[in-house]
Design a protein that fits this description.
By secondary structure, the chain is an alpha/beta fold. It has 6 helices and 5 strands, in the order H-E-H-E-H-E-H-H-E-E-H. The N and C termini lie far apart (37 Å). The mean pLDDT is 85.
Length: 191
Amino acid sequence: FNALLNQLGNVEFRSGDLYEPVEDEDFDWIIANPPFVPSPDTTLYFRHGSESGEGISKNVIRGIPKHLRDYGYAQIVTSMVMRENEDYLEKIKGWLGDEHFHLFALGTRFGPVHRYILNHVTTDIRSPEYYGDLVTWVESYRKGKIISIGDGLLNFRKTHLKKPLCEFRNFRMPRPGQEIEIKPVLDYMDM
């Protein structure tokens, strides 16, 4: 559908589990928008990324070292799940393994988990099941020690530097009509 909508003819479609259809291939760019909502309910496959919210994203990131060419870029849209006593960037770097990557994490709209839960519970508020489902989500987040969630974009660049750059920035979304200043991000990733 997207290829037709954008009138693209140079598109090849493959079906499989993440990198399985491209097992022995590497790329200059890897772009992903996997399901990333931490949810005890997994019925919305396009949105719910496991109870932690990181199940599929973690596997996408773990495949980057094998499938990204030297000096290639990878970008992943995700929810940035912050947990008690956990360093977010160290977690992401751990998923990458020993490979050297610049990692630039952009996050925005961090807020309390109750607001995130209220925006993502799928049960109709008028339904008798709503309160029970709400409690299930709250308990799931408590069990996972989730303290805050924001929208994020993870940017990776494969490098041979012994000490790659690693940075997290919380940025404000532009107001309507304002443009996002993307040049600093691109300059950072070219280092």
